[in-house]
Every structure is written in structure tokens, then in C-alpha cells.
Specification:
Number of domains: 2
Order of helices and strands: HEEEHEEEHHEEEEHHHH
CATH class of the largest domain: Mainly Alpha
Helix content: 25-40%
Number of strands: 10
Number of helices: 8
Distance between the termini: 72 Å
């Protein structure tokens, strides 16, 4: 082929290729097909299905919102889908697609399908985590929180059942995913004020249990601190109030930790590990937000001190 022929195939400068077929501003519409396989999760507001993406030949998880839920839940669901689609972090789940079965039908979002177990199920089965798994998992949890807090998003529902330990061929061990942003708060955009308390009272920071009080990422660190105690010891600091009225449980949070966390650690750990463990938990779970770690990076530094204490005592 001659040079003249090659140049003839290249459009002149300033002339768009494929003129007349594609142009800026056009909308491309593609109908995706997902074949539902089985229900893998269910809650009061919807269900999660394992499904098969027939276009790309891969398995996905599809979260459906029931058609008769209140408008506020529908708004939160759409926000969760938009946020999930914008995430690009190994410890967060990507939202791949979203839509509705009909104009007034069930809304849905397609997400990465995870293989593994949530931390809550592991604690129920095994009682607690070993120190290496504990430290690795909570490092990853803090990395996820640092990412969302940098974007001015507060999760507001950090707890063992929303920390998912997933198998991954790209990493030895496991990858922890922070999941379920259904009740998160995006401080970067105007949002309606809550008219009722939002969150799980077993893990809610004292300020989260009071309507109208401003929140920031330190509320998530409080919940993660309680989760750390539960994962390390098999016991929740406020479990004695779980069968009491919610108001009593919330008052217990405002009084502070009821017992020293290191007292419930398993045997075989050094005294130094227990002391640092108490320091990390006490700061993460301080009643006053001003006494807590200021951000996830600072709490990660506390966790690294705990890792050093574990190595020193080995």
C-alpha cells in the first residue's frame, strides 16, 4: 500500500471520523439482560439475587427494592446506586448497572458478586478472629472508611454484618469489603434532614442517637471500635442491654464502655497487647467525638501500634 493510499484513509484535520453516524451529544441505548438464578439475601425493603449477565457472560448480584417502600427509602436506594457506581477502591463494592423492571416497578442495581462470609456470620460461627486476620481485616476496613470519608460520605451503619470477607485471586488471604450504603449520609450535597433515628442502636455513636446533631466520620470510627472488640473477643461491649428497650441501650452508650475490653481477650496474648488494645478501643469509642481519633488514618496508626505489640509479645 502506498503512502498516498494510507493518507487517503485518514480524515483531514478537524473532520470527525464516522461523520453522520456518531456525534457528541448522542445517547446510546443498550438493553441489558440479566437472568435471575437464586435469592442470596433478603430484608424488609428488598432482596438480593445471584444473576447472570448474558451480555458479558459473568455472574453479578442484583439488589431489588420493593415497589411499595416509602419515598425516602427509594431516594436512598438511588443514592446508594450512584455512590457505588462512583467507587473505585478495592475495599468497596462496585455498582455496575441500575434500572427498574417497569415505570412503577421494583428498582434494582447490579453489583459485583462476592464470594465469602460477612464478619457477623464468622463471629457467630467461630466466636472471634485470630490476631493476624483481625489486624488484616481492620486495616482494610479503615482503608475503605478513609476513602469514603475523604469524599464526605458517612456510612452510618458500620457493623460486623456490613464487613464482608471475600475471596480474591488478586490477593493472598482475603479482601474485606465495606458493604450496604443504604443509610449513608453524603455531606457533599444537600440532603433532607432525618425525621427519625437512623442506624443500628447496638453500634450507634452517642451523637448519632440524637436528632439534629451534626455527624462526621468519627461516628463510623466509634462503630468500628465496637466491632473490633466483638471480633477480637466474641463479645459486644453493650450486649447486656440488647434485650432492654432501645432507649436504655442508647443511654448505656452515653455512659461509655461498661468493662475493660482486654479482660475479654483470649489467653496467650501479651500484657502489652492488652494495654494497647484498651487504648485503641477507648479512643475509638470515646463518648465525646472530640476525644476520638480524628480520622481513619489516625485510627490506622493505632492499629499499627497494636500490630507491633502483637509482634513484641510473640
Amino acid at each position: 500500500m502506498s503512502e498516498r493510499t494510507v493518507l487517503a484513509l485518514v480524515p483531514p484535520l478537524g473532520e470527525p471520523a464516522a461523520q453522520g453516524r456518531l456525534r457528541a451529544g448522542q445517547t446510546l441505548e443498550q438493553r441489558r439482560r440479566y437472568r435471575l438464578v437464586e435469592v442470596i439475601g433478603e430484608g424488609g425493603m428488598g432482596t438480593i439475587w445471584r444473576a447472570f449477565d448474558e451480555a458479558l457472560e459473568r455472574e453479578v448480584a442484583i439488589k431489588f427494592l420493593k415497589a411499595d417502600v416509602p419515598a425516602d427509602y427509594r431516594r436512598r436506594f438511588r443514592r446508594e446506586a450512584r455512590l457505588g457506581a462512583s467507587f473505585d477502591h478495592p475495599n468497596l463494592v462496585r455498582v455496575l448497572d441500575a434500572g427498574a423492571r417497569s415505570r412503577d416497578g421494583d428498582e434494582w442495581m447490579a453489583m459485583d458478586l462476592l464470594a465469602g462470609h460477612d464478619l457477623g456470620a464468622l463471629i457467630e460461627t467461630h466466636g472471634r478472629l485470630g490476631v493476624p486476620v483481625l489486624l488484616d481485616g481492620f486495616r482494610q476496613a479503615l482503608a475503605a472508611l478513609a476513602h469514603v470519608h475523604d469524599r464526605r460520605v458517612i456510612h452510618r451503619d458500620v457493623k460486623p454484618f456490613n464487613l464482608f470477607l471475600s475471596r480474591s485471586p488478586a490477593r493472598s488471604g482475603f479482601v474485606l469489603k465495606l458493604i450496604d450504603f443504604g443509610i449513608c449520609r453524603n455531606l457533599a450535597v444537600p440532603e433532607p434532614a432525618d425525621v427519625q433515628l437512623v442506624g443500628d442502636p447496638r453500634y450507634m455513636a452517642p451523637e448519632q442517637a440524637t436528632l439534629g446533631v451534626p455527624l462526621d466520620g468519627r461516628a463510623d470510627l466509634y462503630a468500628l471500635g465496637l466491632t473490633l472488640v466483638q471480633a477480637a473477643t466474641g463479645r459486644h461491649p453493650f450486649e447486656a442491654w440488647f434485650s432492654a428497650p432501645v432507649s436504655e441501650l442508647l443511654r448505656a452508650h452515653r455512659r461509655g464502655l461498661p468493662w475493660r475490653p482486654s479482660d475479654a481477650l483470649p489467653g496467650g496474648l501479651s500484657r502489652g497487647f492488652g494495654e494497647v488494645f484498651d487504648e485503641v478501643v477507648a479512643r475509638a469509642c470515646a463518648v465525646d467525638p472530640g476525644a476520638r481519633y480524628p480520622d481513619a488514618q489516625a485510627m490506622l496508626e493505632g492499629l499499627e501500634a497494636l500490630a507491633r505489640a502483637a509482634r513484641h509479645g510473640a
